[in-house]
From TrEMBL:
<feature type="binding site">
    <location>
        <begin position="281"/>
        <end position="283"/>
    </location>
    <ligand>
        <name>ATP</name>
    </ligand>
</feature>
<dbReference type="GO" id="GO:0008776">
    <property type="term" value="F:acetate kinase activity"/>
</dbReference>
<dbReference type="InterPro" id="IPR004372">
    <property type="entry name" value="Ac/propionate_kinase"/>
</dbReference>
<dbReference type="InterPro" id="IPR023865">
    <property type="entry name" value="Aliphatic_acid_kinase_CS"/>
</dbReference>
<comment type="similarity">
    <text>Belongs to the acetokinase family.</text>
</comment>
<dbReference type="GO" id="GO:0006085">
    <property type="term" value="P:acetyl-CoA biosynthetic process"/>
</dbReference>
<feature type="active site" description="Proton donor/acceptor">
    <location>
        <position position="147"/>
    </location>
</feature>
<dbReference type="InterPro" id="IPR000890">
    <property type="entry name" value="Aliphatic_acid_kin_short-chain"/>
</dbReference>
<dbReference type="GO" id="GO:0005524">
    <property type="term" value="F:ATP binding"/>
</dbReference>
<dbReference type="GO" id="GO:0005737">
    <property type="term" value="C:cytoplasm"/>
</dbReference>
<feature type="site" description="Transition state stabilizer">
    <location>
        <position position="179"/>
    </location>
</feature>
<keyword id="KW-0808">Transferase</keyword>
<feature type="binding site">
    <location>
        <begin position="329"/>
        <end position="333"/>
    </location>
    <ligand>
        <name>ATP</name>
    </ligand>
</feature>
<feature type="binding site">
    <location>
        <position position="14"/>
    </location>
    <ligand>
        <name>ATP</name>
    </ligand>
</feature>
<keyword id="KW-0418">Kinase</keyword>
<dbReference type="InterPro" id="IPR043129">
    <property type="entry name" value="ATPase_NBD"/>
</dbReference>
<comment type="subunit">
    <text>Homodimer.</text>
</comment>
Amino acid sequence: MKTLVLNSGSSSLKYRLFSGETPLADGLAEQIGEPTGHLVYHNLEKKLEHNLTEPLKDHKEALKQVLAFLTDPQLGVLANPEELGAVGHRVVHGGEHFSASALIDDEVLAAIHACVPLAPLHNPANILGIETAKEVFPKAKQIAVFDTAFHQSLPERAYRYALPESHYKDLGIRRYGFHGTSHRYVAQEAARFLGRPLEELKLITLHLGNGSSMAAIKGGRSIDTTMGLTPLEGLVMGTRSGDLDPAIPGFLAQHLSLDAAGVDQVLNKKSGFKGLTGSNDLRTIEAGYQAGGQAERLALELASYRIQKYIGAYLAILGGLDALVFTAGIGEHSALFRKLCVEGLEHLGIELDPQANQHPHQPDLSAQHSKTKILTLPTNEELQIVRECLGVIG
Ligand code: AMP
C-alpha cells in the first residue's frame, strides 16, 4: 500500500511518500501564500531532485503541485492518484481525546478542532493539511497521528499540576507531552537493537533537537516526560527556556511591561541556547565552546546539567534502567553534548565509551562494563507515522 505522510505548517507542507515502509519520494513546499513560493521534490528511487520557485497560492495549490510531481511520467512514483491508499497526518495536539492514532471522520476532526486552544499555532495548520488532503485525495483514508498520544499513558500523579482542580477540569491544564511519535519509535528501535522485548525494558529516551524532550518508558509505555501543557517545559532548547520558577513570567511582565504574548515570545523564541549564546544552532555553540567561549560553556553545562537531573529523577521512578537512548539532531550528531550529558554518572551504572561516542555511525556508545546501555539511534517520525497508518487500517 502507498501512504503519503504530511506535516502541515501554517506556510509549509512537508511530505514523504511510502510504499509499505519504503520511502519513494519526499520534499517540502515553503512560503505558501507568500509572493514567492518554493517546492522541492525528490524521487528517492531514481535519486532525482526537482525544484520549483513560483507562488503557491494556498495549501491546496501546493499539494496539487506535489501530486503533479508524484504522478509525472518521468519524475513520479505513482501511476495515478488512486494508487494512494492513505494519508498520514502529523497532528501536534490530541489532548485527552486520543491515546492512539485515528482514522479521520467528522467526529475525529471535531476533536482535533477542540484541541486548538491547547496548540493555537499548530493544530489549525494541521487541520488545514487534513482538509486539503481530503480534497486532493478524496479516495485515500485520512489518518491522524498525534504528538501527544504516546504520553496519554502517564499516571495522574505525573500529568497533573498542583493547581486548582477546576483549572484541569475546565481548561484542560495538565501535562500532555510531545515528540511522542519519536519517543515511541526510538523505544521500539532500542528494543530491536538490544534484541529484547520492549515490554520488559526500562528506557530513558532523549529527543534532543531544536525542540528537546525526554521520556521515561517502562514496558513500552511512557510514564513521564519533560514537556508539559505546551512544548515549553523541561529541557533547555534551541530558543525555549524549559523549566523556570513559575513566578518568572509574572516578574517579566511587571518589570518589562510585557503582555502575555510578549512573555510568551521571550520564553519560546528568545531563550534557551539562543538567549544564552545568541545562537540556537548547536554546531555554532560547539565551535564557540571549543574556542574557549564562556557563554557557550555555560549554555552546554546548563543544558546537560538539567538533563542529568532528569536522568536521576527518571531512574528513580523507573526503578532501574536498561538503556539511555539519544536521538534527533543533537542526540544523533553531537558527541560533545552526549558526553556532557552522561559525564560523572558512572556511579549510577551509566558509563560511556569515549571512542565509540566519537564514531559517527556507532549505535552502542556504552563502555563494556556499563550496567546501562547508552545508545544513539536515528529517529524516523515519518516511518512511525506510516506504521501507525498501517496499524489503523489493519
Ligand atoms: P532537529 O530539530 O532534530 O533537526 O535538530 C536540530 C539541532 O541539531 C540543531 O541545534 C543543530 O545544530 C543540531 N545538529 C545537527 N547536526 C549536528 C552536528 N553534526 N553536530 C552538532 N549538532 C548538530
